[in-house]
Amino acid sequence: MIRILGLFSVLLLFGCKKQTTYTEASNVQLATPLINSSSLFATENNKIEAPYLDAGLGLEVNSIEGKKRTVFNSKENIALDEIGTYRLRTVNPPFLPSEWVELKVLPEGKAIESIDWITDPKPNYFKGGSAVLIDGKSADFSFHSKGWTGANNPFGLKVQFDTTTRVDSLTLGVLFNPSAWIYPISELRIKIQKDRSEVILKDFDFKVEGNLNEQKHIFLSFAVGEEANEMQLDFIPKNLPEEHTGAGTPAWLFLDELIIY
Length: 261
Hints:
Elements: H1 2-17, E1 36-37, E2 48-49, E3 58-62, E4 68-71, E5 84-91, E6 101-105, E7 114-117, E8 149-151, E9 155-176, E10 185-195, E11 198-207, E12 216-237, E13 253-260
Antiparallel strand pairs: 1-2, 3-4, 3-5, 5-6, 7-9, 8-13, 9-12, 9-13, 10-11, 10-12
């Protein structure tokens, strides 16, 4: 009995001294933070928003110019005033930094008087109304966010300008989340009206490629090169591709921001 207890004590002592991935902080990775920006566009008023950054955690910000800085106050203002992609992550040594989060910052577009959903009935995912498509804010990754507008059947939008406007290109924010059957694969028909007598039609097909397990916010651009007083955009979502488990059924198309350049 004494020999058994002695052997048990040795094993216990050895086990306590052995380092494991569960006892070493340097092997623990911090959770990816929820980070947004106050605007989608590059302005001195566009600030980083990290509402749930815990006390003591730092936020490392890699700017477009390659500059790096770390802040420990989530309310500290950091302007996103350069066009491009910022990279951010949570840090708190000796823990491993979190995964990177990227924030896309775009140039401001031309003025749009109004945008209206012209399909009736409206789909279930229309929580924020048409205005969210031109509010200058980037929607959260969750399709439940009121920043997204989505459908899996043909739908149309009407864009109106105050005056005749040169439209060089149209940029659309779309959600890629195949696990939720949200897959940007669609036909886009643009009807451009300069005045009552002149109507120009342009057709595009688009498909966003990616890993079926990933989730991302993508911006697609379409060359237009016309003057317009108003434009009608008709989206015709296609079926999910062969590599998807739901192949052959209509894909959901979720839109965030619509920008005119």
